[in-house]
Write a structure and sequence with these properties.
Elements lengths: L3 H9 L41 H17 L5 E6 L4 E7 L5 E4 L16 E5 H14 L9 H6 L54 E6 L2 E9 L3 E2 L12 H9 L15 E2 L2 E2 L26 E3 L24 E3 L10 E5 L4 E2 L26 H17 L15 E5 L5 E6 L6 H17 L3 H6 L21 H4 L5 H4 L14 H6 L31 H15 L24 E6 L2 E9 L3 H19 L3 E2 L11 E2 L2 E2 L23
Parallel strand pairs: 3-7
Antiparallel strand pairs: 1-2, 1-6, 2-10, 3-4, 5-6, 8-9, 11-12, 12-13, 14-15, 14-17, 16-17, 16-18, 19-20
Helix pairs in contact: 2-5, 6-13
């Protein structure tokens, strides 16, 4: 069997990837090419929770409006707090009412996913999504923008370099969806994480906001009318939205040493902004300033913001934010939990499974017991312990511990417990649950039946008119590229094979093997001619109807995006999720998200293994003989998990996942 690395090496011979050393930078050291970005991580992080005041929110709006006016632009500007509460939404007179979703990768008049949807999506939705993305992807150890997001969700990483695999967070754009069951909703201040009207954004023009070293929110701007992405990693024309957003955040800039260009993934530094030398000088501090008073007004957006009030943000870590230090089960590991702000009640307290265990293919004898409360507690605690020990990938300075969210679900996808480290990016909250449910669902012997029972999907055109319907079952049954043909196995997703989130990601890319041009797509992906970050394949199609309904009619949004039982917030197709077994029987799922994907994999896989050893009740990772890395497809094997090199701080231990 050929290894993935062998195939990559064959394809890479003589390719442009040989120029990669010029792109490499060490995390937290050296200097940056961005003006004014250099030096060690020596900024002070406040020991107290921080929040935006209403006056500060108004200043950001005024600065953005003044900057736009100086260059003749008309902008919609959104400001959110760290957990996604929309604090203000401002629209300049003459700003566009709607946007066009356009990746630049898919052409033609036939609707293809969200790509090409225009004239029906409000510009307010785009501005809010950008602001939420800047807030949710960032922390006190990393500052990521929507340009950063664009760089890590495309078909090649680095962007534009052929024959390299997809971005490390490939698929993350379809998280925080407005139809999910973990995200909260409603205008005004409430506990987060709040939903995003368009999921996470890859369109430049969204940045995090900082006070005293802590993320306090995000700002997003929509002025050019195109909701797209950055197709090139090379320096080029400045993006209008990005230039205005960076001008608006004056005084709330990210600390230089944690900006994305000081963070690496796989040795490759990430982009933050192309507008550092194009920031517009601004002086306005309030919307009553004579330079901006007549330029526009605050506007309402159904279910997200009610004008005219400008709101103060919540302080992350206080009960009002919905994220607080745990006071019971996880204090030893400095765990945080999600709470209802009104009474500080844990939204997802550690619980025993409520769904029955279903015997798998070939099972004999009595059915194993479902997850018990004590077992869930041990799994979460052990995974949290691995996270605290792990060396972070996407944080500065070097040697920082990983910051993640950890979720455990039962066989029906019910959340049995959720815990976070103190500074984990907010996006990982929803994503960790997606990963747990993804690993659970595709490992279930009922997965194929559930997929084939789903109703057809129809993409909307620019007039919100439904196109020709097609069946989700094609991802299984298509005679050329369906999963049954791909694996030469009519029982795929029903035969008891254990699939990790990484393995599902392997077959949800527009090339198989991942990134190798000229190879056909994996069975869960669209072909490269139709693929874009707005048209990924099964991942989008499962949520398409729920997502578009939530965009066009926010009050009618369902809490189940997919129609699949137990997969309410959609699937995720990058690593960090594993199924949980007792013996040979599937009993749950475990998901981890917030750091590098190999770190997420390790925390889930090793954490579950340590819990199984401590419990001695049969709880464990899937038996090695049943894992998806034993499966051959197109002459290649899938990956199950991949643990990082030199994984722990203050330790030289290697190969920590070997033999599990």
């Amino acid at each position: 069997m050929l290894s993935w690395n062998m195939v990559w090496l064959r394809a890479l011979k003589g390719s442009a990837v040989l120029a990669l050393p010029a792109l490499l930078m060490s995390c937290g050291g050296g200097t940056s090419s961005a003006p004014g970005v250099s030096g060690a991580c020596d900024f002070t992080i406040s020991s107290q929770p921080q929040a935006l005041t209403a006056a500060e929110v108004e200043t950001i709006l005024a600065q953005g409006a003044q900057a736009a006016n100086q260059i003749g632009a008309k902008a919609t500007i959104a400001v959110v707090d760290r957990v996604g509460n929309v604090l203000a939404l401002y629209k300049m007179t003459g700003a566009g009412a709607t946007i066009s979703i356009r990746s630049g990768k898919v052409e033609g008049s036939v609707p293809k996913g969200l790509d090409g949807l225009s004239g029906v999506v409000p510009s307010e939705a785009a501005a809010i999504a950008k602001a939420i993305t800047g807030a949710y992807l960032s922390s006190s150890g990393n500052a990521f923008s929507t340009r950063t997001a664009s760089f890590i969700v495309q078909e090649h990483f680095p962007v534009g370099v052929d024959n390299m695999p997809g971005g490390p967070l490939f698929g993350v754009q379809f998280s925080q969806l407005p139809c999910g069951d973990l995200v909260t909703r409603g205008a005004g201040i409430g506990g987060g994480p709040k939903r995003s009207p368009l999921g996470l954004s890859a369109d430049p023009g969204g940045f995090p906001l900082y006070k005293n070293g802590r993320v306090v929110g995000g700002v997003g701007v929509m002025a050019d009318g195109i909701y797209g992405l950055d197709e090139s990693s090379n320096p080029g024309a400045v993006d209008l939205d990005e230039r205005l957003a960076q001008s608006a955040l004056k005084g709330f800039d990210a600390p230089a040493c944690i900006r994305a260009e000081r963070i690496t993934a796989g040795g490759i530094s990430l982009p933050f902004s192309k507008s550092d030398d194009r920031v517009i000088a601004v002086t306005a501090k309030s919307l009553s300033d004579s330079t901006v008073s007549a330029l526009g007004a605050r506007v309402s957006f159904d279910q997200y913001y009610s004008a005219p009030a400008i709101l103060a943000g919540t302080a992350f870590g206080d009960a009002g934010s919905g994220f607080v230090p745990d006071a019971s089960s996880f204090t030893a590991g400095s765990g945080y939990v999600l709470v209802n702000p009104a009474n500080r009640a844990n939204r997802y307290p550690v619980s025993a499974a409520t769904a029955p265990v279903v015997p798998g293919a070939g099972s004999t004898g009595s059915t194993p017991a479902p997850l018990a409360k004590g077992e869930v507690q041990e799994i979460l605690a052990q995974a949290l312990g691995v996270a605290n020990q792990a060396r972070a990938q996407i944080r500065s300075p070097l040697g920082s511990p990983a910051q993640v969210t950890i979720s455990v679900v039962d066989t029906a996808g019910n959340v049995l417990g959720l815990v976070r480290t103190p500074d984990a990016p907010v996006f990982g909250t929803d994503v960790s649950l997606q990963k747990a449910r993804t690993a659970l669902f595709f490992s279930s012997p009922q997965a194929a039946t559930a997929l084939t029972a789903l109703p057809p999907v129809s993409y909307f055109d620019s007039n919100a008119k439904a196109g020709t319907p097609f069946n989700i079952s094609q991802y299984l049954t298509d005679p050329q590229r369906g999963a049954r043909s791909f694996f030469n196995n009519p029982a795929v997703f029903s035969d008891g094979v254990a699939f990790s989130a990484r393995a599902i990601g392997n077959i949800a890319r527009p090339y198989f093997p991942d990134g190798i041009a000229g190879y056909p797509q994996g069975p869960l992906s669209k072909a490269i001619a139709d693929w874009s970050p707005f048209n990924t394949g099964l991942q989008l199609d499962l949520t398409y109807t729920g997502l578009v309904t939530a965009i066009l009619a926010p009050t009618t949004a369902s809490t189940n995006c997919t129609g699949l039982t137990g997969v309410n917030n959609g699937i995720q197709i990058f690593p960090g999720g594993v199924p949980v077994y007792r013996g040979n029987t599937l009993i749950g799922g475990l998901g981890v998200s917030g750091d590098g994907v190999d770190q997420d994999d390790m925390i889930a896989f090793l954490g579950l293994a340590r819990a199984g050893k401590a419990l001695n009740t049969g709880v464990a990772n899937a038996p090695a003989s049943r894992r998806s890395d034993t499966v051959t497809a197109q002459g290649l094997g899938l990956r199950y998990v991949q643990c990082p090199q030199a994984p722990f701080n203050n330790s030289v231990e290697q190969n920590v996942c070997e033999g599990i």
